[in-house]
Design goal:
The protein is about 40% helix and about 20% strand. With about 220 residues, the protein is an alpha/beta fold. Bound molecules: pyridoxal-5'-phosphate. Pyridoxal 5'-phosphate (PLP)-binding protein, which is involved in PLP homeostasis.
């Protein structure tokens, strides 16, 4: 199957309220061009250098999403163009994004990453840490960063009930924050689901799926 065919097969299964992020990390620019020519405009990368190289080479109507772990000293390289940063996992990082956003005269949209998997290798806040950030006085002062949602990754397991439970937990937290009368936030994006689990994620409230290998084929990390 071609990239184009994969994209249309996947898109046919997505409800209209779900945004598809085509995860193109490690893939050559020619693969992204093929997806672009098939109408795809949202791409996800996990390394700032690689994303910036691709941004320079590809049409400027592409939305670039940073889905990987972000080092604070590299935020400046993507601040001029990044559309959404999915993996914000510390208040210090949020402050740095705000600072770099100010330098570019932009408001940079971010998702806060929540740790929902049982593995402790996956980054993210736990519920209490997350809620405490929203209550920081300093949080309200950030003008060049906007928290528009949450992101989470489920445990890498065959157990679909566990995956569903983890996604459901994140959806519950998302709804709780939006409904809170003390937190002044109306988040729209719940980024959850990858090639192996996006259907379960959508059933449990995802509004944005990040799909790589089912579109572009398996990655080769050599
Ligand atoms: C690589 C990656 C994906 C896509 O994974 P696939 O299994 O290839 O769909 C999604 N989200 C994050 C955070 C990733 O790093």
């Amino acid at each position: 199957m071609s990239i184009k065919d994969n994209l249309s097969t996947i898109k046919a299964t997505l409800p209209t309220h779900v945004t598809l992020v085509a995860v193109s990390k490690t893939k050559p620019v020619s693969d992204l061009e093929e997806a672009y020519n098939a109408g795809q405009r949202v791409f996800g990368e996990n390394k700032i250098q690689e994303m910036t190289d691709k941004w320079e080479q590809l049409p400027k109507d592409i939305e670039w999403h940073m889905i990987g772990h972000v080092q604070r000293n590299k935020v400046k390289y993507m601040a001029p163009y990044v559309s959404l940063i999915h993996g914000v996992d510390s208040f210090k990082l949020l402050k740095e994004i705000d600072k770099q956003g100010a330098k570019c005269d932009r408001v940079i949209k971010c998702l806060l990453q929540v740790h929902i998997a049982e593995e402790d290798t996956k980054f993210g806040f736990d519920e209490n840490e997350l809620l405490s950030i929203f209550n920081l006085e300093e949080f309200a002062l950030l003008k060049n960063v906007e928290v528009v949602g949450l992101m989470g990754m489920a445990t890498f397991t065959e157990d679909e009930n566990q995956i569903a439970r983890e996604f459901k937990g994140l959806k519950g937290l998302f709804d709780k924050i939006n409904a809170s009368t003390t937190i002044n936030l109306n988040m729209e994006i719940l980024s959850m689901g990858m090639s192996g689990d996006y259907k379960i994620a959508i059933e449990n409230g995802s509004t944005m799926v990040r799909i790589g290998s089912s579109i572009f084929g398996a990655r080769n990390y050599q």
